[in-house]
Design a protein that fits this description.
This protein is mainly alpha-helical and 280 residues long. The strands form 2 sheets. It has a 3-stranded mixed sheet. A two-stranded antiparallel sheet has the order 1-2. β4 and β5 form a beta hairpin. α5 crosses α7 and α6 packs antiparallel against α7. The radius of gyration is 21 Å and the shape is globular. 37% of the residues are buried.
């Protein structure tokens, strides 16, 4: 009986692995082969469908139309002037009403959000461009689609582990729970990698849009302050410690501009940014 369960578990794992590794698409911006099961059109549809519910969790969209349109213009300019335009997605940029949660995120297909709480902490248009560039990086990197595919594979492997570890006096639930916990840690580590890759894209995209990439370094310092000095281990968080991300951003800037950041890369329109913050 145990050997049958083991053979069944192996078959489930093999089929799941074949399905995952055979689903490959080439990223049009990076040229990287990625394991994803969604098409770009399906990503966009999923993002549009999910956006209202996600916004509702943060109190809905900020009611000021001028604020919304200005952020939309800045985000669209970053896309139009950078390699992100080659992704083929239709981007939308939104300011959320939430004045307490310091956060920004992107949904698959180009829906990008920033909370009023994070916006208030920013000090320049370039910092805003850094945040938006980072989130655009998640979209371009197809991180959500990759996470969905990895999650599907993890579920298959968890099921296989549950079958293999079950016995006549156990239905395998305890073994499946242990396997699920391991799978969760694996997926968190993938999330950690995605954040660092999005920082790489953020530096690239904001620089191509003529913003000073050192502003993204300042954003990391703002996030560190907002975290309240939490000492939670980096490995157990989907967001790497800002200090570690700061070091990578420094390295990215140095690699992109070994002779120093060109003077034409600037901090944006200070007057416009001050007016936007006043509308918050």
């Amino acid at each position: 009986m145990q050997s049958r369960r083991l053979l069944l578990a192996i078959a489930i794992a093999v089929i799941g692995g074949i399905f995952y590794y055979c689903n490959q698409q080439v990223n049009p911006v990076t040229g990287e082969k990625q394991h994803v099961s969604l098409t770009p059109a399906q990503e966009a549809a999923l993002g549009l469908q999910t956006a209202p519910q996600m916004a509702e969790q943060f109190g809905g969209l900020h009611p000021d139309p001028t604020l919304q349109s200005s952020v939309e213009q800045i985000g669209e300019a970053i896309v139009a002037r950078s390699a992100a335009r080659g992704s083929g997605y239709q981007y939308d940029f939104h300011v959320l009403r939430d004045d307490e949660t310091v956060n920004a995120f992107a949904l698959p297909g180009g829906q990008v959000f920033i909370t009023a709480a994070l916006f208030r902490r920013l000090q320049s248009e370039a910092q805003l461009a850094g945040v938006l560039g980072h989130e655009i990086g998640h979209v371009v990197g197809r991180h959500s689609a990759e996470q969905l595919a990895k999650g599907q594979l993890t579920q298959v492997l968890v099921g296989a582990a549950g079958v293999a570890a079950s016995s006549e006096d156990s239905d395998g639930r305890q073994a499946a729970a242990i396997a699920a916990a391991v799978g969760q840690l694996v997926n968190m580590r993938f999330g950690r990698k995605d954040e660092l890759e999005a920082d790489h894209f953020g530096v690239r995209f904001m620089s191509e849009a003529h913003y000073d990439p050192r502003a993204l370094r300042e954003v990391m310092q703002i996030l560190a302050e907002a975290s309240g000095g939490s000492s939670r281990p980096e490995f157990l968080s989907t967001h790497p410690d800002p200090g570690n991300r700061l070091a990578q951003i420094e390295a990215e800037i140095q690699q992109m501009f070994p002779q120093g950041v060109p003077p034409e890369l600037n901090r944006g329109d200070d007057a416009r940014f001050a007016q936007l913050k006043a509308r918050l």
